[in-house]
Design brief:
Length: 347
């Protein structure tokens, strides 16, 4: 059994049992548990192992992705393998190639390669999906990044407990059972287990936007506004209820205003020009998702507003959207098409 059963640290035992319960009730079937060897994913692994050892979770496989961007990355994979062996669970060490990309940020390129490698492993091993260690803290960072990108309530609702991502290796189901757990709580059970996590020094590089939020901005807000993170997540969850209602309205309207001709998806120009922006912006995003074949890509407020403005503009105008999407303003329609697949298209 795992350490907390015999630990004198009552808080650590309580956290581990809660984490194990969240994992056991938040996943479906045999899964892969993503583990980088860092604090969060090590806490996830300890919780998953506890759930399995107590008969509440299917046997699972530990999945570690080595991006080969640092000399010590191979040793980190071996660290994860030793921990998995100690816990009595199988492990797969996955390697990806050069993460450089002609488009998108370096962190986005790494993310795409990581999820593609996980998708390939999940398919090969016959798993239902992958479990990640995303916490309340990750959720706060995601919400802030999306708000800063101008996506509005629809895009800023944060990560879902379960979602399906599109990768170049196919679709990947992702389980995030720890979205109600704080990063500090995972650190507590990792420390009590006597495990020394590996830490990627690039996570401290505040040139990356998420790192800047994690290392500087969110801690500053927490110091001056205690409870900031929980309040933000709660507020966004309440806003999401309203957003879901408008989503349903947009989905019901979409099929009456969308037409398809081969690879072109068209919207009624008059409808976009005259209807409420809360609905038209959502339908525009639905069209973009359809063309991309992805549910985890969003365009920001400025882009949807550009399309809405074009509906009231001159015939023949062209609006360029991210991910290789082009919108041509025809006499009675807005014609959306995908120009070419770019490095930044898969999610």
């Amino acid at each position: 059994m795992l350490f907390p059963q015999a630990s004198s640290n009552t808080r650590a035992r309580h956290i581990l049992r809660r984490v194990a319960h969240l994992i056991a009730t938040g996943v479906d079937g045999p899964v892969g548990v993503a583990c980088s060897g860092g604090t969060d994913s090590t806490g996830l692994l300890l919780g998953a192992a506890h759930a399995w050892q107590t008969g509440r979770l299917h046997p699972f496989v530990v999945l570690h992705v080595d991006h080969r961007t640092r000399p010590e990355s191979a040793a980190e994979g071996q660290h994860v393998a030793r921990l998995a062996m100690h816990l009595g669970v199988p492990v797969e060490l996955l390697q990806v190639g050069d993460a450089t990309s002609k488009s998108g940020s370096p962190e986005e390129s790494l993310r795409k390669q990581r999820y593609a490698a996980l998708a390939a492993a999940v398919r090969r091993l016959g798993l239902t999906g992958v479990v990640t260690a995303h916490t309340v803290d990750d959720q706060v960072e995601t919400i802030l990044l999306r708000l800063l990108a101008g996506t509005g309530a629809l895009g800023a609702t944060g990560m879902a407990a379960t979602s399906t991502l599109s990768t170049c290796e196919g679709m990947l189901r992702v389980f995030r059972p720890l979205l109600s757990v704080r990063r500090a709580e995972l650190s507590t059970i990792v420390a009590e287990a006597g495990v020394t996590p590996v830490e990627d020094p690039s996570n401290l590089d505040t040139r990356y936007r998420r790192n800047a939020l994690r290392q500087e901005i969110v801690p500053h807000l927490e110091r001056h506004f205690p409870g900031f993170s929980e309040a933000l997540v709660r507020s966004v969850a309440l806003s999401a209820q309203d957003a879901e209602f408008v989503d349903d309205v947009a989905a019901s309207v979409a099929e009456t205003v969308i037409t398809r001709h081969g690879s072109v998806v068209s919207l009624s120009r008059a409808w976009v020009a005259e209807s409420h922006p809360a609905v038209t912006s959502r339908v525009i995003r639905l069209v973009v998702r359809e063309l991309l074949g992805s549910v985890d890509r969003e365009i920001g407020y400025e882009r949807t507003e550009a399309v809405r403005a074009a509906a009231r503009g001159r015939t023949g105008a062209v609006v360029e959207l991210p991910f290789g999407i082009r919108v041509v303003v025809a006499r009675g329609s807005l014609d959306f098409s995908r120009m070419r697949k770019t490095d930044g298209d898969t999610g």
